[in-house]
């Protein structure tokens, strides 16, 4: 039969069938992407368990450590998906960093912060939330830490899935508290410490928001609103980068090298000051060269804030690695200590392999599951450009560094997201102020309330969702941990 004998209706049917197959292939590819991420995450969890098996395969209670290592890896993945995504969101949302660039920075600086400046000796688990001696036996203590680790990971996983940035440190705190109460009663909890952590729900975002708004006010007053914007940027951008470099140098001197040489805070301040001056001098010709040929308009300023924003993102990653990762893998370290020595009441260190799991896990978590939260923080709360994102990142970095040195129980997530809110609310206030000034000059008519609401620069729905997630993190993780603790006891008896 020749082609001329083919019924055209059959060709139409064939075209429709091919179209359905093409659509099916696209749909299959779309559906399989989450499965690829889940599969890669599962492989990392298995890898962590194998590492623990190699290290502790011949020891007593090796199965406990292997299971705990898998839970720790799962928690580390969730840190990357939630916490690190919050930290990187402003830079990626402002298009100063690609997703690949953010991942590289997170891998290098989060790992450096965790391995160089993290891993301090911890006297009690989760910064004194429960008294270990109240747990009675090492078996009960290990069971409680297992429950806390799994519960906090599950809660952060759920929060990431619904698109709510939460504090992984507070999740661990809630998990430890819930398991501790179930195991030893309410008297086991340090309620004074819990009160300080509850206060940090307010202190962290407010502090981050105020500092971010202050930096944005400084940039607007001294650069954006100036007649010659480029000349003002040449003067002040090197200063801003110097401030950031000085803060980084001070923090590194206080925490990062103390395992090699002890440096007191006054000397660290001098080191930071010297570093700030040096970086300021180095950045003067760099910014001058970058600004050559730029038009005198706000859009041109974005180019000049590219390097400061990238450096501030790196600084924030380092601070997060040093300040938060050790807290999140603390229960795993406590389990290792208790199973190796039977001692769970004295100080314990964070083993290097545990910190490596944390450092690698956050990198994989960011790569596999981070884009959802990055979009939320970077684009959906308020509109960010490189200047605004720089203020957020610098605010978060400086606040975390100062809080870490002072021992304040603040959350890097709350600070970073609070900085985004601070920038957005400052822009609303500044826009309203300028509108009132313009009205006073030219006699503009009053703006209707509906139009005022439409001009809001911060999405109130996201604001309320995030605040609610922050408030319920500790009690939700505590309840989940209590349930897991009872389930484990029901399976294995009186503890591991």
TrEMBL record:
<feature type="transmembrane region" description="Helical">
    <location>
        <begin position="304"/>
        <end position="322"/>
    </location>
</feature>
<keyword id="KW-0813">Transport</keyword>
<feature type="transmembrane region" description="Helical">
    <location>
        <begin position="92"/>
        <end position="118"/>
    </location>
</feature>
<feature type="transmembrane region" description="Helical">
    <location>
        <begin position="138"/>
        <end position="160"/>
    </location>
</feature>
<dbReference type="GO" id="GO:0005315">
    <property type="term" value="F:phosphate transmembrane transporter activity"/>
</dbReference>
<feature type="transmembrane region" description="Helical">
    <location>
        <begin position="389"/>
        <end position="406"/>
    </location>
</feature>
<feature type="transmembrane region" description="Helical">
    <location>
        <begin position="35"/>
        <end position="56"/>
    </location>
</feature>
<keyword id="KW-0472">Membrane</keyword>
<feature type="transmembrane region" description="Helical">
    <location>
        <begin position="172"/>
        <end position="192"/>
    </location>
</feature>
<keyword id="KW-1133">Transmembrane helix</keyword>
<keyword id="KW-0592">Phosphate transport</keyword>
<feature type="transmembrane region" description="Helical">
    <location>
        <begin position="265"/>
        <end position="283"/>
    </location>
</feature>
<feature type="transmembrane region" description="Helical">
    <location>
        <begin position="412"/>
        <end position="429"/>
    </location>
</feature>
<keyword id="KW-0812">Transmembrane</keyword>
<protein>
    <recommendedName>
        <fullName>Phosphate transporter</fullName>
    </recommendedName>
</protein>
<dbReference type="Pfam" id="PF01384">
    <property type="entry name" value="PHO4"/>
</dbReference>
<dbReference type="GO" id="GO:0035435">
    <property type="term" value="P:phosphate ion transmembrane transport"/>
</dbReference>
<feature type="transmembrane region" description="Helical">
    <location>
        <begin position="62"/>
        <end position="80"/>
    </location>
</feature>
<feature type="transmembrane region" description="Helical">
    <location>
        <begin position="350"/>
        <end position="369"/>
    </location>
</feature>
<dbReference type="GO" id="GO:0016020">
    <property type="term" value="C:membrane"/>
</dbReference>
<comment type="similarity">
    <text>Belongs to the inorganic phosphate transporter (PiT) (TC 2.A.20) family.</text>
</comment>
<feature type="transmembrane region" description="Helical">
    <location>
        <begin position="198"/>
        <end position="219"/>
    </location>
</feature>
<feature type="transmembrane region" description="Helical">
    <location>
        <begin position="463"/>
        <end position="488"/>
    </location>
</feature>
<feature type="transmembrane region" description="Helical">
    <location>
        <begin position="235"/>
        <end position="253"/>
    </location>
</feature>
<dbReference type="InterPro" id="IPR001204">
    <property type="entry name" value="Phos_transporter"/>
</dbReference>
């Amino acid at each position: 039969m020749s082609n001329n004998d083919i019924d055209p209706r059959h060709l139409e049917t064939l075209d429709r069938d091919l179209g359905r197959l093409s659509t099916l292939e696209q749909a299959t590819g779309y559906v399989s992407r989450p499965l690829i991420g889940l599969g890669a995450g599962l492989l990392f969890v298995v890898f962590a368990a194998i590492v623990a098996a190699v290290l502790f395969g011949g020891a007593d209670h090796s199965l406990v450590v292997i299971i705990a290592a898998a839970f720790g890896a799962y928690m580390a993945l969730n840190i990357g998906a939630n916490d690190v995504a919050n930290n990187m969101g402003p830079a990626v949302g402002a298009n100063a960093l690609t997703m690949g660039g953010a991942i590289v920075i997170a891998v290098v600086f989060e790992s450096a912060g965790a391995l160089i400046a993290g891993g301090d000796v911890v006297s009690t688990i989760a910064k004194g939330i429960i008294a270990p001696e109240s747990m009675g036996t090492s078996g009960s203590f290990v069971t409680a830490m297992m429950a806390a680790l799994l519960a906090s990971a599950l809660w952060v996983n759920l929060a990431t899935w619904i698109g709510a940035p939460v504090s992984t440190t507070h999740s661990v705190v809630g998990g430890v508290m819930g398991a501790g109460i179930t195991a030893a009663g309410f008297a086991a909890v340090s309620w004074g410490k819990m009160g300080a952590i509850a206060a940090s729900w307010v202190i962290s975002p407010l502090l981050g928001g105020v500092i971010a708004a202050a930096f944005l006010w400084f940039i607007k007053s001294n650069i954006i609103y100036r007649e010659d914007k480029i000349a003002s940027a040449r003067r002040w951008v090197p200063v801003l980068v110097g401030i950031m470099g000085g803060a980084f140098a001070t923090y590194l001197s206080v925490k990062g090298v103390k395992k090699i040489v002890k440096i007191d805070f006054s000397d660290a301040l001098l080191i930071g000051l010297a570093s700030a001056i040096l970086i300021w001098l180095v950045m003067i010709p760099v910014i001058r060269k970058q600004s050559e040929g730029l038009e005198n308009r706000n859009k041109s300023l974005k180019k000049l804030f590219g390097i400061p924003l990238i450096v501030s993102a790196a600084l924030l990653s380092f601070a997060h690695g040093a300040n938060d990762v050790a807290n999140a893998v603390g229960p795993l370290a406590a389990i290792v200590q208790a199973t190796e020595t039977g001692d769970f009441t004295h100080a314990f260190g964070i083993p290097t392999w545990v910190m490596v799991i944390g450092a690698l896990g956050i990198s994989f978590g960011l790569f596999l599951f981070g884009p959802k939260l990055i979009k939320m923080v970077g684009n959906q709360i308020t509109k960010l450009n490189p200047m605004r994102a720089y203020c957020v990142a610098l605010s978060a970095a400086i606040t975390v560094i100062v809080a870490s040195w002072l021992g304040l129980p603040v959350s890097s997530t709350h600070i970073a997201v609070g900085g985004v809110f601070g920038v957005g609310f400052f822009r609303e206030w500044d826009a309203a102020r300028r509108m009132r000034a313009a009205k006073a000059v030219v006699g503009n008519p009053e703006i209707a309330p509906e139009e005022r609401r439409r001009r809001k620069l911060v999405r109130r729905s996201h604001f309320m969702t995030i605040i609610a997630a922050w408030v319920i993190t500790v009690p939700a993780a505590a309840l989940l941990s209590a349930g897991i603790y009872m389930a484990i006891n029901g399976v294995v008896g009186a503890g591991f």
